[in-house]
Amino acid sequence: MLSITNLSATIDGKTVLSGFNLEVGAGEVHVIMGPNGAGKSTLSNVLTGRDGYVLSGSIDFDGEDLLAMSPEDRATAGLFLAFQHPTEIPGVGNMYFLRTAVNAVRTAQGLPEIAATDFLGQAKDAMALLDMDPAFLSRSVNTGFSGGEKKRNEVLQLSLLQPRLAILDEIDSGLDIDALRVVATAVEALRSPDRSMIIITHHPRLLEMVKPDHVHVLTGGRIVRSGGPELATEIESQGYASAMADGAAAPSTS
Amino acid sequence: MTDLIDGIVEREYAYGFHSDIDTDFSPKGLNEDVVRLISAKKNEPEWLLEWRLTALEHFLTLEEPSWQNVHHPPIDFQDMHYWAAPKPKEDGPKSLDEVDPEILETFNKLGISLGEQERLTGVAVDAIIDSVSVATTFKATLAEAGVIFCPFSEAVVDHPELVQKYLGSVVPPRDNFFAALNSAVFSDGSFCFIPAGVACPMELSTYFRINAAQTGQFERTLIVAEEGASVSYLEGCTAPMRDENQLHAAVVELVALDDANIKYSTVQNWYPGDAEGKGGIYNFVTKRGRAGNRAKISWTQVETGSAITWKYPSVILQGDDSVGEFYSVAVTTGMQQADTGTKMIHIGKNTKSTVLAKGISAGKAQSTYRGLVKVLRSAEGARNHTQCDSLLMGSECGAHTFPYIEVKNDSAQIEHEASTSKIDEDQLFYCRQRGLGEEDAASMIVNGFCRDVFDELPMEFAVEAQALMRLSLEGTVG
Questions:
Q1: Is the pLDDT at B475 greater than 50, yes or no?
Q2: Cα(A190)–Cα(A185) distance, rounded to whole angstroms?
Q3: Are B305 and B237 within 8 A, CB to CB?
Q4: What phi and psi values does residue B104 have, to the nearest 5 degrees?
Q5: B432 touches chain A (CB under 8 A)
Q6: Sign of the CA dihedral with B52 first, then B53, B54, and B58 last
Q7: How many Å apart are CA B265 and CA B462, to the nearest integer?
Q8: How does pLDDT run across B57-83, given as a tens digit for each residue?
Q9: Residues in chain B closer than 8 A to A72 (CB atoms)
Q10: Which is nearest to B166 in space by CA: B257, B265, B232?
Q11: Residues B223/B254, Cβ–Cβ less than 8 Å
Q12: CA distances (Å), origin A116, targets A98, A121, A192, B184, B466
């Protein structure tokens, strides 16, 4: 599904990723953990095509050269990012925005556009799972939403767009435990054999609810250690420093 | 982003066709003879000729104003025609069937086929090409309600007492340079009269279009809503592409007597000139309304065209508890310049005004908001809220805000908010990550920015306005 080889990224003369490698197979859920400044957000920026980075290395997305594609082409090819800080777009109705996004993807796939009434039904069903008030559909995109509401709105888009690869960038930050459970349940429900996920997080708590296949520790712009879910548990009890020290002594392979 | 801006600058004007209609011109130049010719062509009564001549006399003593924040070469007022009319094939059309097919084709290209409008939309259209109204629809339905909606020149003949009573009562001939010019040479326009207590049964619409070369268009619109009457009036404007600049100096007067309600909406898409700033319409317009007790006047405008726009739709809040509103979107791209805003003059007690102005600049365009809120000593309890937001696309354009606030009564509450921002890269990226192309993303964000104003437009205009915004941003993916 996704193959990142020897990726390096530099912005404003500062190298943020260097010698980064990652293989994500179909249906796999990968977790990337790491301390602040490790390059986690840069990874999601580079994958989605934000400009401003000088890049080398390669990223293969289902046989296509991801780095050669525009952000919108990546999106319609099935790459989705749940933003860490979703942007407010005043005056643009959430329902209209969501339907436009869904239709952009459908058009790229050669499917007919979805009718407003059909879409409304789907959106309401998805919102019920996320415990969201349907009134959010008539509000402007993310405008005046609380931090938790914005995160739910991201997961709502994830469930409506049905991407092949979803990147969740700190989807758990700013959520209380109840909201976290709702979001985690929705994410877990979206797991499928043909959908992969990369979950970027600081906090292992989410991983008690969404069981990952692989856990990676990112620091200094590269993955220094990889393992199974137990690695997350280890980081929670012993911290990054210890995990990285162990990793340096005995790099594990996955 | 650079491609996006280039695309906007390079957009083509979609309405730039020119109809080959046989046109009857006055000789170039401005003098008493021309004014007499215009008046005679229209079989005007003596008092109106005198009114025009007085305005001309005053005009000739004036100098063109230069305080506005726009730049253009001097206009030679002696080097243009002040009268142009499509020549009648025989005696002039009695119905749509008799209208010159070329004229109808012009309207078809504009997407406002009169016949179709008549059948499908229920909007009465008073269509004006150059100076003469070519067809007026729905007159019968309106007549049943007692509403008069006709070309100005017809009103002068059929309802002289109403015209004489209200003409110049809100914008006197001596008001300003361009109002004086218009008063001297105005050719046609619309007249609308809603009798006391009548809610006009349909939205009234006028489509203005400047067709002939080297012609100034000086239309005059007068809307009178008597006590308790209400009306919604739509005005749309386009002009063909030409190398030389054309002058459009209109006057619009609104009279809202006690408890009356007038809503005036404009979508202005005059030819803006080419990417180097060659050609295009100079749109210098005086629009003003006078509101009686508890009356309400609401101006809504979407301005995307013209090389230079210079207008301040205003409300004189004369009556107690009267309300004035101004909602505006002004889009300037390429080399366009706009100096626009409003004047709210509070005279009556507890008068209230709201101003919401959105300016969007791209390319090398310059957009200015200029607004006056004036509270006279008599205006106890007056309130105003003004909000001006500017959106910049690219680094070569500019946005300027000149609010003037004059308050002579301590009880007034005046609020002014202003913001200037660049189109947000995060918003663009967010949309693109969801699969929208850069052009669609920009269009969506800009439409969102204008939403509060679009919400004030009548439904059919809201759709047109959004389509126009889209057109403004067309061809933006490089």
A1: no
A2: 9
A3: yes
A4: -60, -40
A5: yes
A6: positive
A7: 10
A8: 999 898 888 777 777 777 788 877 777
A9: 432-433, 435-438
A10: B257
A11: yes
A12: 11, 9, 27, 54, 19
DSSP, collapsed to helix, strand or coil, labels residue B261 as strand
Rounded to whole angstroms, what are the CA distances from A157 to A83, A106, B434? 11, 14, 9
Contact A89 B447 (CB under 8 A): no
Residue of A nearest to B455 (CA): A91
How many angstroms separate the CA of residue B428 from the nearest CA in chain A?
9
Chain Cα centroid distance, residue B262: 15
- Single out the residue of A157, A213, A151, A218 nearest to residue A180, CA to CA: A151
**Distance (Å, rounded) from C-alpha B168 to C-alpha A172?**
66
Task: Give B449 to chain A, closest Cα distance, Å.
Answer: 6
Q: Give the residue from A72, A106, A161, A165 with the most B CB atoms within 10 Å of its CB, the best one to mutate.
A: A72
Q: Do A100 and B436 touch (CB under 8 A)?
A: yes
Q: What is the amino acid identity at position B179?
A: A
Partner A contacted by B478 (CB < 8 A): no
Percent of chain B with pLDDT over 90: 38
- Residue B307: C-alpha distances to residues B70, B130, B280, B358 (Å): 10, 19, 5, 18
| pTM (predicted TM-score) | 0.80
Q: How far is A133 from chain B (nearest CA, A)?
A: 22
**What mean pLDDT, rounded, does chain A reach?**
90
Q: Cβ separation of B430 and A89 shorter than 8 Å?
A: yes
B24 touches B84 (CB < 8 A): yes
Inspect the interface and report whether the beta carbons of A101 and B434 lie closer than 8 Å.
yes
- pLDDT tens string B247-300: 788 899 999 999 999 999 988 777 777 767 677 778 889 999 999 999 999 999
Contact B348, B377 (CB under 8 A): no
Of residues A70, A92, A108, nearest to B448 (C-beta): A92
- Which of A80, A112, A85 minimizes the C-alpha distance to A190? A80
What CA–CA distance (Å, rounded) separates B220 from B151?
10
User: By three-state DSSP, how is residue B476 classified?
Assistant: coil
Q: What are phi and psi of A236, to 5 degrees?
A: -65, -40
What's the token pair of residue A110? 């050669």
- If you ran DSSP here, which 8-state letter would residue B265 be given? E
**Tokens matching residue A182:** 């709702």
Please judge whether A71 and B433 are an interchain contact, meaning their C-beta atoms are less than 8 angstroms apart.
yes
Going A177 to A182 to A185 to A187, the CA torsion angle's sign is negative
Token pair of A170 as six digits: 């700190």
Q: A111 CB contacts (<8 Å, ≥6 apart)?
A: none
For residue B396, how many other CB atoms are within 10 A of its CB? 14
CB pairs under 8 A between A and B: 74
